[in-house]
Amino acid sequence: MFFKDIHVKIRLFFVIVIILFLTIIAKVLYIQVFEYDKLKNLSSDLWSRNLPIEADRGKIYDRNKVVLADNITTTSLILIPNQIKEKEKTIKELSKILNISESKMAKHVNKKTSIERVHPEGRRLSFEVSDKINALNLDGVYLVKESKRNYPYDSNLSHVLGYVGIDNQGLSGLELEYDKYLTGSYGSIKYFSDAKGNRLKLNEIYEEPQNGMNLTLTIDNNIQLSVERELDNVVYKYNPEHALAIVMDPNNGEILAMSSRPNFSPTNYQKYSIEEINRNLPIWMNYEPGSTFKIITLAASLQEDTIDLQNDHFYDGGSIRVANAKIKCWKKGGHGAETFLQVVENSCNPGFVIMGQKLGKERLFSYIDKFGFGKKTGIDLNGEATGIIFNLDRVGEVELATTAFGQGISTTPIQQITAVSAAINGGILYKPYIVKSVDEPETNSSIIKNKPTKVRRVIDKQTSKEVAMALESVVTNGTGRNAFIDGYRVGGKTGTAQKVENGSYMAGNYIVSFIGFLPADNPKVVVYVAIDNPKGVVQYGGTVSAPVAKNILEDSINALNIPKSDDASEKNYQFWEKKYLEVPNLVGKKLDSVTNELTPFEVQYTGSGDYIIFQSPSNGERVLEGSKIRILLGNK
User: Catalytic annotation on 193?
Assistant: First the structure.
């Protein structure tokens, strides 16, 4: 019985030992197979160190792949405190090179951490500073690659592009709006150290950083440069409080250029106020639009067939009485008898009051809503405002009258150019946008591709043609003649809006604007210019803003290769204006036989002889009277 119990106990013991043995084997197998990677990483973290390598931020291009934002490779200072053997020398030398106090540097050197980034004094160092640090050859002192944002055109397009902070994070504009795409992933150089942090002589492991995605914009840099130049000239010439310009393709909502003054340098953003940096005026600024808004009233009136431009007439005596208000025309004494086309050409306020009254408040305000006023356009930029439109139940006779000619309401520039584009492009309202695509940097394949977005039809094609025709007449015969371009069918509308302060209109303080487009019969480009309180000049949109828009339109013709129109209208010249004349054919003719033909021009002669053997410009070209014609004389 005793031996039997012993055998049982021995068997039990062996069973327990076997179970324990199998358990240990199973645990070892589990660790080796299932938890190997996890434990390896944990153990590696105990004796490996990572020196971070920053990825390049994605580049930003214009529509033609001109670089608008890229990166410059710089270095930043990183310390491994446990590896620093000569602490006093390190503190003294680095503080001298970085121009900071020794006490501040001592905090970095003596910090109880495995890796210490010297921030911000040691960030994005110049090559000169980096070379000085590298020459010291100090233990525990490392220079690692960092990427610094670079804007080749400096302040150009600054409010659209935005800027980045010290850590390369987007803080405004497209840099903020598309930050998650533009930001890349860090890489590193991994090295190994002992328990005390001393570097071991083992191979380093390099993990390559992943650069951010690139952006391709709808912007045309050639047109953008034109806008920037013209706004700089406006500031120099008129010293305005603000100035802005937008250029758009009316057929799809693509923004071709956008800028404003004051602007800022994204590289030196610390020197500017938050207001200067964050206020992108073309999408943020709210103000009474003035007469450029009359285009909406015109479009609504033509669509609803409440006026006939050629056959309906109106007499402008200089003012019109609405309820208890007297609304004046800008021209003292008025324009007298007019067709409604002349009302548009002359930008006659009383005539537009009549248009508004014929429509009635319900119809007029329904079109204002359809054209997108009172709400954001949805452009892919942050900081867009909505504008302010009367609630319909608060619109009386006076509010209806003033709204019809652009007073008493508030709009943004982006709303105006978007709405006018719809009025002249065939009647389709498009959502404006500025980013064409988000592209993978290595393959250049698009991960996001933005396309034109039709919001709604607001007027029909025939009405749109009538609107464009009327606005072309404004440039050839009316207040917009300073935007006339010989050989092209240009349409446009001037605007002069009195500014409001504390509920009252300010004396002698206006926002003068002009919106123009070409060709009038098939618009390819629309330009909007607004100048806030220009100094030293009579404040009218036709005299101040129209010439600026004309210059931008001329540059747009070259940038977009827009051909001349065969049926371009002839300008209705005022007596003081120089006319465009066709250069006569002079080559082969005797000089004394063409004297009368040369009278309107300034002639420069070279050579000798009785006959003209060369001329510049060539015959058939159109130039302003008084222009120089060069003639080479010789004998047959």
Answer: no
